[in-house]
Design a protein that fits this description.
This protein is an alpha/beta fold. The chain contains five helices and six strands.
Length: 200
C-alpha cells in the first residue's frame, strides 16, 4: 500500500501532520496552506507589506488570501444606464425600431457591462504563536492597523475580510471585541490536524 502524500507548503516542504507542533513563521504557512485547501481563497501570500495612512512604516501582513468574485453592488445601475444608452442610440440615430433588435442590443449591453464588475476580495490574516491567550489590546491593535490601511487611498489593496489565528486561544474580551468588528478567530483543532473557527 502506497504512503499517503502529505500536503505541501508553497516551497515544497511537507506540511507537518500535527499543526500544534508548528513554531514561528511556520504557523503562517500552515494556516495559509489550510486556508487555500478550503476552496474559497485561490491565492495565498505571506509577509506582505501594506502601507497605512498614518503609520511611518508599512505593516507586515502575515497571510494574505484573495479570490475574484462578481461584484453586484454597482452592476444594476451601470447595466440600466448602458442598456438605455445603447437602445436610445440605435433607436433614434440608426432608427432600428424592431423589438427583436432592441432586445438583442439590450442583452449585449448587459453582457458587456457585466464583464467589468469582477473584483478581488482580500483577507488579512493575523497569526499569533504564543503560549498565552490573545488579549483584547492585541485585537484592538490589529483592528487599528486594519483601519489605518483602509483609510489610505493609495494602499495596494484593502482587506475585505479579517481573520485571526492563535495557538494559545483568546480571552473573553478579545473574542467579544473581535465579534463586534467582524474578525473570524481560529485555533488549531484539538487533534492538531487543521484549524477551526472559534464559536463565539
Amino acid at each position: 500500500m502506497s504512503e499517503k502524500t502529505l500536503p505541501l507548503f508553497p516551497d515544497g516542504e511537507p506540511l507537518p501532520t500535527n499543526y500544534r507542533n508548528i513554531k514561528g513563521t511556520s504557523l503562517e504557512r500552515a494556516f495559509g496552506t489550510w486556508l487555500k485547501s478550503q476552496g474559497e481563497y485561490d491565492t495565498v501570500k505571506y509577509n506582505q507589506p501594506l502601507s497605512g495612512k498614518t503609520a511611518q512604516r508599512a505593516y507586515e501582513v502575515d497571510v494574505v488570501g484573495s479570490f475574484e468574485k462578481y461584484d453586484s453592488t454597482k452592476v444594476n445601475t451601470y447595466i440600466a444606464a448602458t442598456t438605455a444608452g445603447i437602445i436610445a442610440l440605435f433607436y433614434f440615430v440608426f432608427e432600428i425600431k424592431e423589438s427583436l433588435g432592441l432586445v438583442a442590443l439590450g442583452a449585449l449591453a448587459m453582457y458587456l457591462a457585466s464583464q467589468h464588475f469582477n473584483k478581488i476580495v482580500y483577507v488579512w490574516v493575523e497569526c499569533k504563536n504564543q503560549q498565552g491567550t490573545v488579549k483584547r489590546r492585541q485585537m484592538q491593535l490589529f483592528l487599528s492597523n486594519v483601519e489605518d490601511v483602509r483609510a489610505n487611498d493609495n494602499a495596494a489593496w484593502k482587506p475585505d475580510n479579517l481573520m485571526y489565528v492563535a495557538f494559545g486561544g483568546y480571552d473573553a474580551d478579545a473574542l467579544h471585541f473581535a465579534a463586534e468588528h467582524g474578525v473570524d478567530c481560529y485555533v488549531s483543532k484539538a487533534n492538531g490536524k487543521g484549524f477551526e473557527l472559534v464559536d463565539y
